Amino acid sequence: MLTCTPYMINSHRLLVRGKRIPYKEKVEEGDKKAGQVHQLKRYASIGLVLIFLRVLVWYRKKKKKRGRK
Asked: What average pLDDT does the chain have?
């Protein structure tokens, strides 16, 4: 039995009945593909950030060498 809240505002009780049914987890093909696309985008983003950082480090080293000469 469920009681509505807050206390003593609505003192009526509701009788809730239900029937348990078997649960079968079903993953649709579209959901799997969406997850794969999301994962691919994540890896591509990480790769682009790493490439950007590598170019940035290379550029700064090159700039330092020019300043020494």
From this structure: 81
